[in-house]
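A quick word before the example. In earlier lectures we treated sequence and structure as two separate objects. From today on, think of them as two lines of the same record. Here is oleoyl-[acyl-carrier-protein] hydrolase written that way.
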Amino acid sequence: MYQIVEETVCALLPIIQNKPFAFFGHSMGSYIAFMTAQHLKEKYKLEPMHLFVSSVNAPHTYVFKAMLAHHQKGKAMSDEQLHSFLLRVGGTQMDVLNDKDFPEYYIHIMKADMHIITNYIFKAPSEPVLSCDLTCFLGTEDIVKDVKAWKDVTSGRLDTLMRPGNHFYIKEPANEAFVRNYITKCLELSMF
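And the structure line, produced from the sequence above:
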């Protein structure tokens, strides 16, 4: 996770200096967005105007990690366990999951993501590490349920918005449009 954040910061730093910016992340991308925001604030005194996270619990709650650890039982998931996990999370198209080439093309990528998430450690902060507003988007049928703990990481306002769907609710065009419009309005209001 820290290598991803370092590389992200190196790529973004020349672009975001002296400009307002915001981050959006979905699922594991939310952790990357959060850690990037935290790193930029700590090291460069730069902070996003707003952090938008989607379909993920706060990083210090470990709810998602606990579920993954249950599936892993201390070792890498088998292909069958990963297949079962993806079915439970929802949102992955059945034709993809049932494709005979799925293991060859996707399993190693998914296992790498699982490895990053299960080895990511963020301890509950004694005080907020960010001061920007934070919005959590969530599907009504998502396995992620409690996002209130995100308030622990920011002294800014926390909003939670639910949309119909599962973990990948954002794939629905109406939900994608809603999220995009909401983010645009938030950023427009922040500029004034």
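Notice the following. Residues 64-118 form one domain. We will return to this example when we discuss secondary structure assignment.
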